[in-house]
């Protein structure tokens, strides 16, 4: 989203929330409290767009799986091939002797991204899966 300028706004927050924002801003290296609050608002609005918008998104689907579990690796490869043209990039990392981390970038509308997510999650050895979406 192109930056158009800055508008000054005042907000009232509970003291503990303001302290949490200050701690987060310092820990994450934000230059100001306003920058941290602005980033939080961007994340919230991106989630809202995902829930309500029907256009095109990019998604990063990250998942850890045990490649020793019943044909998991082959099922994941089949899922990726079913979504050729939708999965635009993949990175594979060997965590240890059994576990792999895979990161796939998907481009498409909400139903496309959810379809890829479902196919990956359906593979038996998938332990954890996270999806981050971006409306550009």
TrEMBL record:
InterPro entries: Acetolactate_synth/TF_NikR_C, ACT-like_dom_sf, Arc_rbn_hlx_hlx, CopG, CopG/NikR_regulator, Ni_resp_reg_NikR, Ribbon_hlx_hlx, TF_NikR_Ni-bd_C. It comes from the Archaea. Ni(2+) binds at residues 81, 92, 94, 100. Its cofactor is Ni(2+). Residues 59-133 form the Transcription factor NikR nickel binding C-terminal domain. Gene3D superfamilies: ACT-like. Chain A, domain 2, Met repressor-like. Residues 11-42 form the Ribbon-helix-helix protein CopG domain. Transcriptional regulator. HAMAP family: NikR (MF_00476). Belongs to the transcriptional regulatory CopG/NikR family. This is Putative nickel-responsive regulator. The gene is nikR.
């Amino acid at each position: 989203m192109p930056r158009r300028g800055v508008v000054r706004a005042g907000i009232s927050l509970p003291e503990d929330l303001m302290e949490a924002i200050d701690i987060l801003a310092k820990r994450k290296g934000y230059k100001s409290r306003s920058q941290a609050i602005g980033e939080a608002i961007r994340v919230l609005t991106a989630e809202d767009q995902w829930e309500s918008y029907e256009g095109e998104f990019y998604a990063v689907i990250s998942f850890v799986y045990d490649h020793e579990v019943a044909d998991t690796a082959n099922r994941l490869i089949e899922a990726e091939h079913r979504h050729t043209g939708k999965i635009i990039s993949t990175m594979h990392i060997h965590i240890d002797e059994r576990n792999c981390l895979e990161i796939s970038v998907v481009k498409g509308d909400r139903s496309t991204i959810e379809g890829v997510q479902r196919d990956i999650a359906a593979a038996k050895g998938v332990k954890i899966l996270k999806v981050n979406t971006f409306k550009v």
